[in-house]
Amino acid sequence: xxxxxxxxxxxxxxxxxxxxxxxxxLFEPAPPNGxxxxxxxxxxxxxxxxxxxxxxxxxxxxxxxxxxxxGGADGGDFELVLGYASGGxxxxxxxxxxxxxxxxxxxxxxxxxxxxxxKLTVALKPGNNKIEIRNxxxxxxxxxxxxLKPPKKQRNK
Length: 157
What we know:
The chain is mostly beta strands and 157 residues long. The protein has helices at residues 6-17, 152-155; strands at 21-23, 35-38, 43-45, 49-50, 55-56, 64-70, 76-86, 90-96, 99-106, 111-124, 128-135, 142-149. The protein is built from two helices and twelve strands.
């Protein structure tokens, strides 16, 4: 399609670059780099359920997990690492403080027991913030944890 319609492809690529959708790049899980929040301890809704290691049943429309995190004294742009497993990839909404920040286009990890991680930036206000990860499609994902690393100005204090 790109070869047949290069002008259309160019316009679509420009639109995607302005989108809040984030296509994620996988990497191997590592020890926490910042504060780790185990998602299975979060508030579940819409049919999501907590196992011993992860939040499952996220393929259900409306399934979500929410967890309170600390934005520190100053807030800012935090590095967020999300650990998960998915047999076929998944689309999730990232909601912070009730407002959608982005759509996460999570690649497949190689199976339901194969955990990988993705990294993105999330804007947090000072103090308590509620982060919610919500099903945004029909595909499923097992959510394990999120790590938050504060902005450099906070780490140097």
